[in-house]
Amino acid sequence: MSADRTFHADLRELQQEILRMGSMVEEAIDLSVTALKDQDANLAQRVREGDEAIDDLELLIEDRCVKLIATQQPMAKDLRRISVAFKIITDLERMADYANDIAKATLIIAQEPLIKPLIDIPRMAKLTQEMVKTSLDSYVNEDIELAMSLAEADDEVDNLHSQVLRELLTYMMEDPKTIRQATHLSFVSRYLERISDHATNIGERVIYMVTGRRTDLN
Amino acid sequence: MTDNVKITTKDLNMYYDAFHALKAINISVEEKQITALIGPSGCGKSTFLRVLNRMNDLIAETTVKGNVLIDGEDIYGPKVDVVELRKQVGMVFQKPNPFPKSIYDNVAYGPRIHGLKDKKQLDELVEKSLRQAALWEEVKNRLTSPALGLSGGQQQRLCIARLLAVEPDVLLMDEPTSALDPISTMKIEELVKTLKERYTIVIVTHNMQQAARISDETAFFLNGEVIEFNKTEKMFTNPTDQRTEDYITGRFG
To answer: What is the model's pTM?
Structure first.
């Protein structure tokens, strides 16, 4: 019997906080890859420092969820809305960690010239940022179609990831001196691919929240 | 969160004959907040509620020691007019208890007793009270129908309207939804939450989830003592006292 106005206002606030966390994560992905592309150590450092704020927000949202469950005893879809929020923030936090890992990799290779201009990695970053946004839009609007569309975007990111790995391999085979940097760049590609998987996780949760059914978007 | 204290008890002790029902209660109830009293049967929560408007005066062999201050005035002081006190501090009971009169007359009853005769003023007060009790829309076209013809939930809201008509500032509620179905319960809960804009509300409930849902602060009573008095949020997510934890997690009580 919790379906009253104040509870729904609380739920909307919870969604706003999640969106806020989402846009912080999007920004972290964007900045981390920009820093990598531009060999900008200062920017990479900023991404690393911003991670704490995202972690703090995760805890704040988690407390909010716990409070809502304890005081409002949500049922059915309301309960799924909150249990899904719990999972979403974990996904978002992991994404932020990957952005942080990209920043770390950037700091390692920032002092040496890039073995090649980065094209596909920034494309992956752009796609994954969009996926984060799409996944959260689908959560807030309870839009299953939108959530489903993440499967396609994820395939695209996966393909780019394979492409990047293949390309980096050719560099490494040609010149062993590139191996160190190419390894880090392939890690970066892998991190972006993982971020994309977390976005599809969110999409799966949204479908569960709306329909109560489990799906696999990966 | 306001910082204005409406009700304070100081070393409040209460005895039913030799039975020590309330033991040294020291709490402060905030103005325009909902304070829930929870605890197992016989723990003193209803007794405490009834002390707040001297309902226990009606029971012989009761003794109250210590002070109960409302707006800084001791309600057990020698000059207190108990009728005025009960006007200021109204009560809603477990079972709806409308008078066997019309809907209108139920709400107009209090103001009439207190001397209001003007028809227009009465009409206005009845409408205002019914609106505040979220009942107006449902009964406006049948104000002269018998109150006992209303559903249980409507009767309870009528009792709240009847209370509001005498313009109290503290509302005491003794398990106001225990006789109601879930939908009526939800309506009363919503109503209570809107009423806190104007009134200080103290509510006894056997339903812990209800306390969690609607109150700002919660007092946990056990064997006549207040074990913990805390923000509701804190109380239900991380209580300070182990006995509170045991009670709200269903390990005893």
So the answer is: 0.81
